Amino acid sequence: MSDLWLQFSQQLFNGLSLGAIYALIAIGYTMVYGIIGMINFAHGEIYMIGAYTGLITLSIIGVDSALPLFMVIGLMLIAAVLVTGVYGLAVEQIAYKPVRKSESRLVALITAIGMSIFLQNWMAAGQGARDTAVPQIVTGSLRFGGGGGGFEVYVPYARILVIVVTVVMMIALAFYIKYSRMGRASRACSQDMQMAGLLGIDINRVISFTFILGAVMAAVGGVLIALAVGKLNPFIGFIAGIKAFTAAVLGGIGSVPGAMLGGVLLGLAETFAAAYISSEYKDIVAFLILVLILLVRPTGLLGKPEVEKV
Amino acid sequence: MQPAGSGRAPAWRADLGPALISALLTVVLMLPVFGLHLQRAGAITIVVPHWQPVFWAALLVFVVQMLRPQIARLQLGRRIPRLPRPTLSSRQNTLLLWLVALVAVTWPFLAGRSAVDIATLAMIYVMLGLGLNIVVGFAGLLDLGYVGFYAVGAYSYAMLHHWAGWGFWWSLPVAGAMAAFFGYILGFPVLRLRGDYLAIVTLGFGEIIRLMLINLKSWTGGPDGIAGIPKPTIFGYELARRASTEGGTTFHQLLGLKYDSHHTVIALYLIGLFLAAVTLWFSNRLIRMPVGRAWEALREDEIACRSLGLNPTTIKLSAFTLGAMFAGFGGALFAARQGIVNPESFTFIESALILAIVVLGGMGSQLGVILAAILIVVVPELAREFASYRMMIFGLVMIVMMIWRPQGLLPAKRHVVEVS
After folding, report:
1. Chain B residue at shortest CA distance from A119
2. Which ranges of chain A does DSSP label H, i.e. alpha helix?
3. Which of A80, A291, B12, B270 would you label with A220, given CA atoms 20 to 30 Å apart?
4. What is the ipTM score, two decimals?
């Protein structure tokens, strides 16, 4: 294979693993928006809390414990999912529920921004604002190419783990939404909340459930990124959240498959821009995509158009 | 056997279950943040448990949940007293205004240097708050990238000085115009968007401006920014120990005073006060003009507005542009006060802070915004020991205000005509 092709496949892989994380977070944005039409600004912070919980669990178990690796990762994921599930529920009940009925959309958005700032600094007050190292437990990598001093493709196992776990989570989520009772209720609510309520669906429970489910997906993303990147701070959620929101908008906000598609596309776009244009403009690319998609096609790739009625 | 007269379990028993669950959930919320503390021990990270904060938080939540019926009966929160607002005759009003102006001008001569310096910062935030109030309060457009225009203003002065040697007073109108220009060209495409989409796109623009400032190294100095920005001159006389040009006169020489750096701080404060007053006067006029009325109409109902023949895009754009202009003025003053600008000063948190000022004061209420700006700058300075919790409290204040008092501390008076 030529060097060019190897480089391309390296970027493709990097983009996919980055996009997988974006997709996991984007699910939470899109599901909440689909149900109550609100941008949950604090969602990125849930992801950050998930990452911290994973790290704490890992530190309790100990890096050199006798447990097999998959069990350690499994325990990290379970702990993160439990804690962030509670966070998702608490944030919704304490901050968002009281403002849900207010007539101005700005009220809910400002509440969410306040929650985002609060959670960042809440974690900073507890665990310190500086970078914390995450021990690397998934080491090693696949390498191919590189014959005769050419380009060598470098595929760390930690990044492969990201992609594999994301795919499994996505499939599980898709089945859950399609076939479970709660999934059906939540789809009904996103179509017409009032009607769903009249038909005996407990709307408040569905909304809480949506927040919990979104938090769970973000937590998985948080644990995976902590393992792959190797460091954390309380402010990682902000940029990741904005990027994931961009992914949700790109795919069509309100649409779960759209969030998955948008995440992967954004990850690819960012990685390729960093590789072939300039790494310093990587973040600008994400914001430009966000601005452009909102201007040209606000419904996103897979979204349905929304008509405002008087 | 149950006590006579009650066939049912006592009321508190019904509360016990939910209260216990709440306490349990609190434990889960507290554990990863305050309960299990990550600490480095040599090469590895260990977890040190702190059970006390977790226990107290859980206990607190439990007690509050158990007492909920009693608290609800007290109607707490429902009856937050209205802040007293005495009605004054127009004569008293004018008198009060002159009195406030007199105090605002004279107090720095009696106060300490650091207090005056903080007051200058407060004036900058008053300008920013009033500017954002035009966009968010009057026109109802949530702008999360306001800090971008602030940055444009600050960098306009910094770059004009650095590359062309311009002074503050020449740069000030240019800084305002540049920020307004950016507001115009960025506002043009996005104003068709609905409220929350608009918020996100403006956030994106704010971040793009900051990232450009970091990346355009040859012009803006990159992450290090531009240093050595001079203080404003007064009627062409420099506020410095020695004149920078050969044979020039400085302000203290002109007045025959001994040089004192305290005077520079006071002068800067007075310039800030003057600019803030101009901003207030200007926005006060604007809201009474047809364009101001149109902003308010648009905020209340866009569709009704359009059906009455008002062009929403033009109206929104004017709010956006004028709001940005004041951010530009504020930015130029900020650059003069700091003497250095770098992209670190213009992060999203700054936007959120200015938004918090507008929200806290009451969207659309100028007096409220001024008070909130002063509060938000001065209170953290007074409570230094809580400095690390400052942002956490800001977040909390934003949430609590939105839940209990979305109209702000001093709600704006709405121009309402009752039709009988």
Report:
1. B392
2. 3-36, 43-61, 69-91, 105-127, 157-179, 181-191, 193-198, 203-229, 236-251, 256-276, 282-296
3. A291
4. 0.86
